[in-house]
Structures are given as C-alpha cells and as structure tokens.
Design goal:
The protein is of the alpha+beta class and about 240 residues long. Helices cover about 40% and strands about 35% of the residues.
Length: about 240
C-alpha cells in the first residue's frame, strides 16, 4: 500500500512540473508587455471653435404686393379685385419677373357695430402675389404696379444671388477653419506644447441670416420713381476642431 501511495505522489509531482513552465512563461510574457503599454503616450487634445463671416451685396429684390377693394356686395368686390389683379399680373409678366405666384386670396364681410348689434355693411376682398426681380429695376416696377391697380405693398426684402451665396459660404468655412487653427496654435504655444494632428472636425453651421430690408417711398417732387436700396447680406460659418498635442 505504501508503494501505491508513493507512486501517486511521484505522478503528482511530475504533473506539477509539467504545468510549471507554462505558468512561468505566462508570467514572463505579461511582464514583457507591461512596459510597452506603459511607454505608450496618451493622446491629449484641445478643442477650439472658429468663426467665419462674409458680407456680399444683395442684388435681388423680393416683393409681396396686391389688390384690395371694398364694396356693397361680395360679387361686386370680387369682380373689381379680379379686374385689377389681372392688370397687375399682366404687367409683372411683361417685365419678366421671377417666381411669380399667388400668396393669398380673401373675401370677407365688413361689419358695423352699433347699439350692441352687428350688421354687415359691405365686403372686402384681397388678392396678393409675390415675385422677385433685379434690385436695380424694383423701384420703377413698384410705381408701375400701383398705377396698374395694386393698392398694397406688404413686403420688400433683399437677397444675394444663389451663386454668390454658395461662394461666400465656402469662403466663410475656410475662414472659420483658419480661425480655429490660429486659436489652437496660440494656446499651445503659450503653454510650450507642440501641436499634432487634427483628430476630429465638426462643421457646426454655414447659415445665411435674412438681411435687414430697406424700403423708402420718396416724395413725388424728389424723384420720379421709388428708390429701392438693397444693402448687404452676411454669410456665417462655424467649425470646431479637436487637435492633438
């Protein structure tokens, strides 16, 4: 029985000896990897946002005008508005305005309130259109539209041409990118740090805020036509860069 116990002990020791080199090899492998991981520098980053702005002249005028009339009956008022509107639309088409479209048609009763009583005393109708044209032609056309029958000018605004806006947007993005890089370089230089690669880029916006409209009706003795001056439109862009150092 002692011989059998001794044989099992020898077998167990031999098995442990066979496993031991594997464990030792694993420990050595880990000890070799740790210094390599420890020597890898962590990537530090700085995040900056740059702004770009481009101002371009507006060359297109957007107009909303129309005809309004009042009368005793709905049919009478509607016919009058239709007649005047047709004359105005014919004029606009003859001047080759762009994007001409109807923006509103309305017909409603006009009430009189007396002695706590509501009574219809007539009707009011309106027909509105919108269009755009070159700003240099806008003043004369507005005057001619009023002569043709227009009784309302509800809106005049100014925009730049699509091609000019696209070009200005690209330039504003370039300016925003350069501004972000300049900011990052200034900060890193002040701290004695060296700039590395750009890690992430985010284009936040490249917008075209609506321009401030300018519209002034001159007195008849001062000018033959209404002066219309467009002004400028500003294109804005914002870019955020994440830069390593």
């Amino acid at each position: 029985m002692k011989s059998a116990l001794a044989a099992r002990t020898v077998s167990t020791v031999q098995s442990f000896c066979r496993i031991l080199p594997v464990v030792a090899l694993s420990v050595v492998s880990l000890s070799m990897v740790k210094p390599a991981l420890a020597d890898t520098p962590l990537t530090r980053t700085i995040t900056v946002t740059g702004q770009g702005n481009e101002s371009i002249p507006t060359t297109i005028t957007q107009v909303q005008l129309g005809v309004e009339a009042q009368g005793d009956t709905a049919a009478e008022v509607q016919q009058e508005v239709a007649r005047r509107s047709s004359a105005v639309v014919d004029l606009l088409r003859s001047r080759n305005v762009r994007r001409l479209q109807t923006t509103g048609i309305s017909l409603s009763p006009v009430y009189n309130y007396a002695n706590n009583e509501q009574r219809i005393i007539g009707y009011s109708a309106r027909n509105m259109v919108s269009f755009e044209l070159d700003t240099e032609r806008a003043g004369t056309l507005l005057d001619d539209a009023v002569k043709a029958g227009a009784t309302r000018i509800d809106g005049v605004s100014f925009v730049a041409a699509d091609e000019a806006i696209a070009t200005a947007r690209q330039q504003a993005l370039r300016e925003a990118t350069e501004d972000a890089q300049t900011q990052a370089q200034a900060v890193l230089s002040a701290l004695g740090l060296t700039r590395r690669d750009v890690i992430n880029i985010q284009v936040n916006s490249a917008s075209t805020p609506p321009p401030m409209p300018y519209f002034r009706a001159a007195a008849m003795e001062q000018a033959a036509s209404t002066p219309v001056v467009g002004g400028e439109q500003e294109i804005q862009a914002s870019v955020t860069l994440q830069i390593g150092y």
